[in-house]
Predict the structure.
Amino acid sequence: LRKNLSVDALRDRARETGPKTFEVIRRMFDEAKVEEQPMQTAGAILSIADIYSPQILEKACDKALRQYHMPYYKTIYSNAKSINSEKELTEFKGNNKKPELSEVRVTTEKERQQMNIEIKKSLSVLELGDLARIIEMQEKDIKLVDLSYEKRLELLLETLIQERENRLINRLIKNAYFKYPSASIESLDYDARQIKKSTILNLATMGFVANATNLVITGPTGAGKTYLACALGVEACRQTYRVLYIRMPDLMRNFENQSDNLRELTKYRKRIGNYQILILDEWLNYKLTEKDAKNLYELFEQRSGNNSTIFVGQYPVDEWHNRLGGGTQADSIMDRIIHNAYEIPTNETNLRKLYDSKKLKRLVDEIEA
């Protein structure tokens, strides 16, 4: 743009280009309230001569003056572009020699590369960097060359959706703070647990979450309760449910840390209450104070009928009332937990001891081999 030229210099340059160009510039300055106001636009119009040629600019201004009393830059530029295309077409038709195929391909490739750059810039502005990256991957895959536009677009969108879903799942698993984040339904040893595979697979459909049903997993130390709860939790994350794993002592400690600030305590309790699945490990392994019981009542009052909780502990259900402190407070808590709960059976086998023994044997065999 000719931003540094004075008004007189702009007029002189327009006069040199041709009478129609001068007429456009003259009208711009004559009708402006402030003489300096149209200087930038005038400079932009005169720059069209540098892009194409003074002759094309003159023709573009002539055409624009026949279209409008006061032509805009956009109109003049569009005219110049159109005139230049017609000029190139005429020259091409007048040339008896056909262009080499390689020359045509070079031009097409350059245009395609420029178009790709512009597309990627636009995708970045729209925060669709992932889409730009997938497009680059497709361009490098020779198997996709012969695919139709619709099929390639379908494949591109499928890949984008899958990648975003995978990232969401990984984020949900990370934010759940599982003790065993790699636990999975597929890795469960149903024979050692003496549990029906169909039972776990039915639970893995997450129907209990839709019904806000609680799960109870009790048994002795080493029975694999926590791993089973984490496996169900990870499966829930794969189905994009929000899950939180937390040990009972940590939950009580967090309640205690917020106890001096009622607003923060309520905020924390509400956040915990909103998780679609809450896994409470070491449930009632320690007796509760009256304040602890009150916080639990408020938590389960919020979750009851809305979200599922998985209780993982050593003590059977018939001992919970006493460990909750007894009395009406314990009645109220039990009422919000048990009446809509399914107990997953466990056996007396110490799976931790069993698996640790197998690991130790493998290690010894490797060392002594």
In short: The mean pLDDT is 82. Residues 149-176 form the longest helix (28 residues).
